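Record 1 of the preview.
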Amino acid sequence: MTESVPVRCPECRREHLYAPPSFPCSCGTPVTPPLLRGAGAVPIEQRTWADEWVSVRCPGCGRQDQWPQPELGCSCGTALRIPVKSVATGPPPAQTVLPPHIPLPPTAPAPRPAFHPVTIRTARDAVTAAALYLKWLGYREVRSTEPREDSATGLRAPGLVAQVEPSTRPATVRDVECLWLSSLSASATGVYFTLAGYTDEARVRADTLTVPLFVLDLTGTPQPVNSPADELVTTGA
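->
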């Protein structure tokens, strides 16, 4: 479990306990940005792409990659950037030697390999991340359709109709119902991806229609947000 550290807001002087999030490396090892102890949190006055990312080295494979900058929202309304230790120079740490894997029974299905996310910096990256995830779930020949006027982009594959909303607008009931109708007419599974989440009404409607809902984080890793999505991740295409 990630250790919580005290963080004081320089604006209102309130103190918070903050635990940085962990993200999966492509090797499967959880990576947690190492906080710089003793350094004060900095109010975020202006956002830039460069300030949203930090370089962190994976403790398992030694790979250095870009991960979201740790942030904390204070109850006074101030957004705080939490300082992170810089990546140490020198050779990466030696990889851990794992014991030989016990062979699976001949009748057992082949285990799914680790998902390799794509960092999201643009709307196109969001579509690419969703397409890669659908392929990882087992869908073949995933292709994108023409973007709609409202910025959403469709993805199609045999037995699949998906929608990707890369804007900052939460998906609504109408979005979910339109996707469900499209999947129903195509006799396919409808899957929704968004960066900004869903309204409460949209989530309730998706549960009723058994539409899998996913939220894309900035690392490009989709997170299931309802039971149909959990089931899809478990069973695959």
